Amino acid sequence: MSRITDLADAVVTAINAASFSLEFTAARLWLPRFDRKDLDTLTISVVPRTTANEIEARPARFDRTCEIDLAVQAAVANAAPATVDPLADLLEELADWALGRALDGPPAATCIGVDETTLSDPNHLMELSLYTGVLRLTFRMKET
What we know:
alpha+beta; STM4215-like; 6-stranded mixed sheet; 3 helices; 39% strand
């Protein structure tokens, strides 16, 4: 497999081994599209996104930067804070858990950035009664 899919699999393994405020099992997907009925349980999707390479000052060594999206999705009865807050809190927990996290791999990588690209998608809440929050995790891999 490619390094980014190996990295996404390593993220899934590490997330599933950790403890969070809500129970779930993360999975790696290429296209995280679900029917609304499939989201009655909390769903965490890990999606490989981009890879960029840079040569370091020393020859024969380069940095590979990979971005992985992590989506939190669950059907909700309403958009009241008591319903949505625990899901938004989980998104923040995952962001805190990821930032600075070193994965032994392969591939060995460290999360150097977390961007909460979507704290909560208002269209999903209004039209589908669905919470969707997305993090973009940036990992750096050192390679020789």
